[in-house]
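User: I've been trying to design a sequence by hand for this structure and keep getting stuck. Would you show me what you'd pick, starting by listing the structure so we're on the same page?

Assistant: Good idea, let's start from the same input. This is the structure you sent:
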């Protein structure tokens, strides 16, 4: 609330206190466009307080009205609630624009706590435009009580802005091709969001996901992969799920387990088409049920074991909800629901009930209490038994790195001036430019830092071979003798530097003999009060050229169109990129005092916390201010223990991180459980295509909400509908 004037005191006799049952018009109020009652607590009035009573009645009615608007437009991610939200704001605008902007006036009635009508004055509410735009609305309440009239007003600015981006996946594939994962370990959620039919993803060699998985296409499984459903790293109150829009084919062991007891809304596997197994598969465990939904099932080969309910419901096309169970050993520790026909060819143990809409073949092979087997059943598909919806599509990316490079719209980007300066000749700086300034060479930094999280600060000294303090190009012009062999390079973001944009010169190829260590320190003092993120960020951008043209927003897809982006190729061996605040906690003084060399393993006692809650004895990084923006047709190859702490936004680029990463990193979950990993990246990786090799862990951390990535995502019709209360007036 802005500019709220001091109100008259309300703790004196004659004050009427209001509770909004529904003040008027719109969802509850806003959607109905009818007058409702306001509930009041009956309070004895006195003629000496006529004016005060009129004021209190008007102001309390107005506040109830405004509070209801706030309730009806509260932020939400639920599609149904979002539609209601939009409808509420649209109806408010409709009321205001009536009568050529003079608005709509309605009389309000009141009833007391005993349900009977209370005569506490006559009140009318007017919703009208303020000025010529319906985006600005004034709501006026005028009350007359025993001959005294008081009027109050609220001035509102309605808002319909593109939804800020939410990045919930550690790895997200945007392209329309399939992918194969080899020894990939993901701490956090993973997704393949391009809804192109026929794609096939493959899990091999112990690929494991510790979170949720959403993919459009089919999944083929071999060599003992694991999905461990864990609490969301975005919101610890939420659970996790597995969603596969087409088929799941298990030819070798596949384990889908959970660390959470089942509750409505999570712990399920939802397959849009067919489940086929020819080797061992287990779902859930004792005390940790995981339900499974599909539209056709063919369970064969070796064991199938599940703790939870198994649902086979009809789907689109030829999927009739039929199920065949013919595995050598098969147990459902729960109930089985089949909307089509059930065929049991080998012993099937079901601890709950069996419900089949069609016919059962091989009923004698079902090990279940006879009275619990129901043929010709009617399935309720309600509550727990309701099949989860597979979203038609994931949130679309509206803007691409090219928009951030070239757009003049400050609502889209803050870095286009810095990017274009590389091509108009106004910024010719390279890393070597800073190496020519002795104040940036062999740089020593001492800073007071709270290392323990207790508020007590201690001086921490770290040393760097080179410091970068403004936007520049990372070119191949540094001296190897001076800057090879793992040189530490500090990128120092401050209020004076603003956003630092580092262009990677096309073709930059640094072998293992270079193995640079980049440390990004962000000390900009302008802080987002909602998220705590600093205003300025560090961007590593592709050398995509200045011939890019932005061709507007596609009217069908709602996505920005561009052309003319130059292809880029990068190859790094042993490159490591750290956030400074993590770096000085991860390593001890023996590492921090060196200006060169592989930093090695994190120090004993360092525990990284990627969750949304504090965990004792761990360090939880802030949202990452290190952003990699790679344009269309860019390819990054990073090998030989490379490590990235930052977020990749490369929806039309290829990111190959074929590396065992940083060894010995201890990661905790919200319950304090720990695991030691070989970590390749801490952040999010969004790419058209993604490749990995070796044992590679990727750990989730959000990108900064002040970065340009915040503007990238959201469907063209996906808005945050709301309002801002500018001020109250009393006339």
């Amino acid at each position: 609330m802005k500019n709220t004037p001091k109100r008259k005191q309300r703790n004196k006799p004659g004050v009427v206190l209001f509770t909004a049952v529904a003040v008027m018009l719109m969802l509850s109020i806003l959607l109905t466009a009818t007058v409702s009652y306001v509930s009041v607590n009956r309070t004895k009035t006195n003629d000496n307080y006529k004016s005060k009573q009129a004021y209190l009645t008007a102001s309390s009615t107005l506040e109830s009205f405004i509070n209801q608007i706030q309730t009806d437009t509260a932020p939400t991610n639920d599609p149904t609630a979002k539609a209601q939200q939009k409808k509420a704001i649209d109806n408010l605008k409709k009321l205001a624009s009536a009568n050529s902007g003079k608005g709509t006036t309605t009389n309000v009635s009141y009833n007391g706590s005993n349900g009977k009508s209370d005569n506490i004055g006559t009140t009318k509410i007017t919703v009208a435009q303020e000025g010529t735009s319906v985006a600005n609305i004034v709501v006026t309440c005028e009350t007359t009580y025993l001959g005294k009239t008081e009027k109050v007003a609220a001035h509102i600015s309605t808002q319909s802005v593109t939804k800020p981006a939410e990045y919930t996946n550690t790895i997200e594939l945007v392209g329309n091709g399939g992918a194969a994962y080899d020894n990939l370990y993901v701490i956090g959620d993973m997704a393949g969001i391009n809804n192109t039919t026929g794609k096939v993803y493959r899990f091999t060699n112990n690929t494991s996901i510790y979170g949720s998985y959403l993919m459009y296409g089919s999944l083929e499984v071999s060599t003992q992969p694991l999905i461990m459903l864990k609490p969301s790293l975005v919101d610890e109150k939420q659970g996790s799920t597995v969603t596969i829009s087409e088929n799941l084919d298990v030819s070798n062991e596949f384990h889908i387990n959970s660390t959470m007891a089942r509750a409505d809304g999570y712990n399920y596997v939802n397959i849009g088409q067919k489940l086929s197994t020819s080797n061992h598969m287990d779902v859930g465990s004792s005390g940790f049920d995981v339900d499974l939904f599909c539209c056709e099932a063919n369970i064969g080969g070796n064991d199938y074991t599940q703790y939870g309910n198994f649902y086979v419901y009809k789907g689109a096309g030829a999927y009739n909800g039929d199920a065949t169970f013919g595995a050598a050993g098969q147990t459902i520790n729960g109930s089985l629901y089949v909307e089509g026909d059930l065929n049991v060819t080998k012993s099937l143990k079901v601890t709950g009930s069996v419900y089949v809409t069609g016919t059962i073949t091989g009923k004698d092979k079902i090990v279940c209490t006879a009275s619990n087997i129901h043929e010709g059943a009617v399935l309720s598909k309600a509550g727990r038994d309701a099949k989860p919806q597979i979203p038609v599509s994931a949130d679309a990316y509206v803007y691409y790195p090219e928009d951030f490079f070239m757009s003049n719209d400050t609502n889209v980007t803050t870095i286009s001036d810095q990017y274009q300066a590389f091509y108009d000749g106004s910024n010719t700086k390279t890393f070597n430019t800073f190496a020519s300034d002795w104040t940036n060479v062999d740089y020593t930094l001492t800073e007071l830092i709270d290392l323990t999280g207790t508020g007590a600060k201690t001086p921490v000294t770290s040393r760097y071979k080179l410091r970068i303090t403004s936007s520049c190009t990372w070119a191949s012009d540094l001296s190897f003798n001076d800057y090879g062999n793992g040189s530490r390079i500090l990128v120092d973001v401050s209020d004076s530097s603003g956003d630092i944009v580092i262009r990677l010169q096309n073709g930059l190829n640094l072998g293992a003999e270079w193995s640079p260590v980049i440390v990004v320190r962000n000390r900009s003092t302008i802080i987002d009060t909602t998220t705590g993120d600093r205003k300025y960020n560090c961007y590593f951008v592709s050398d995509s050229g200045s011939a890019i043209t932005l061709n507007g927003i596609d009217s069908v897809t709602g996505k920005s169109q561009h052309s003319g982006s130059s292809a880029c190729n990068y190859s790094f061996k042993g490159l490591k990129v750290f956030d400074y605040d993590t770096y000085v906690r991860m390593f001890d003084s023996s590492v921090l005092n060196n200006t060169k060399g592989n930093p090695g393993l994190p120090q004993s006692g360092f525990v990284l916390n990627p969750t949304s809650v504090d965990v004792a004895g761990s360090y939880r990084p802030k949202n990452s201010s290190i952003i990699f923006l790679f344009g269309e047709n860019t390819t990054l190859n990073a090998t030989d223990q490379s490590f990235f702490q930052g977020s990749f936004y490369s929806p039309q680029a290829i990111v190959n991180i074929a590396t065992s990463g940083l060894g010995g990193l201890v990661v905790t979950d919200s319950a304090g459980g720990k695991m030691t990993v070989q970590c390749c990246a801490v952040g999010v990786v969004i790419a058209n295509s993604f490749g990995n090799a070796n044992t590679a862990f990727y750990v989730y951390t959000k990108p900064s909400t002040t970065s340009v990535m915040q503007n990238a995502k959201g469907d063209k019709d996906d808005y945050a509908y709301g309002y801002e209360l500018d001020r109250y007036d009393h006339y």
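That's my pick for every position. To get oriented when you compare it with your attempt: The chain has a mean pLDDT of 86. The longest strand covers residues 148-162.
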